[in-house]
Amino acid sequence: MLSKLSLITESTPARVSFAEAMSTLASGVVVVTSRRDGRPWGSTVTAFASVSADPPTVLVSLCTNGSAGRAIAATRQFGVSILAEEQLAVALYASAPGKPKFLEAFAEPDASSATPVVAGALAHLDCDVVETVDVADHTIFFGRVRAASATDAGAPLVYHRRRYRALAADPATERSTTCLMS
Ligand SMILES: Cc1cc2nc3c(=O)[nH]c(=O)nc-3n(C[C@H](O)[C@H](O)[C@H](O)COP(=O)(O)O)c2cc1C
Questions:
Q1: What is the pLDDT of residues 62-100, one digit of tens each?
Q2: Are 105 and 87 in contact (CB under 8 A)?
Q3: Where do the structural domains in the chain lie, given as residue ranges?
Q4: 27-166 falls under which CATH superfamily?
Q5: Is the CB of residue 158 below 6 angstroms from any atom belonging to ligand 1?
Q6: Pocket test for ligand 1, best of 46, 103, 132, 141 (most atoms within 8 A of CB)
């Protein structure tokens, strides 16, 4: 059963309720890539979404004063590497607050894309910033997708209730999956 709804005000308990509520949303995990001083840089992000298919457009919401937000505001480009379940190490590395997030150890050395690519990611998008919106302490970067690539296999890394998780392999369920609506 749901706990009693808390009005969101400046008070701490309501903010805690907000964080609790948001933690119940399961998300894929991406590394948003950019360049700092010409070197690959990455930041772990869950606030990523597809906005439009035509033209292909995505958004990421980044802390305005964070390292990734500042790098992308300067270069007007970003990449999005969608992580596979085996990529917990890069998710942890690229989310350490205040620590350097140079990505050489995790990036494809000779990627042909405009932005750094996390090696072994399920997919990668190269984006040019087309619009930014400042909201609260975050900046939403809208990116026009210039190039995209994806693997045809692999399972996603998932974040839910403040933990990294993998989807359960359940061959029985997969065999009996039905389309409920189309
Ligand atoms: C699972 C997870 C998801 C995150 N999602 C976001 C996000 O959507 N936007 C954001 O600005 N920071 C997000 N962060 C925090 C960043 O990864 C990073 O720690 C933060 O921007 C501080 O980096 P900095 O000290 O280099 O600026 C997330 C962290 C974790 C662990």
A1: 999 999 999 999 999 999 999 999 999 999 999 999 999
A2: no
A3: 27-166
A4: Electron Transport, Fmn-binding Protein; Chain A (2.30.110.10)
A5: no
A6: 46
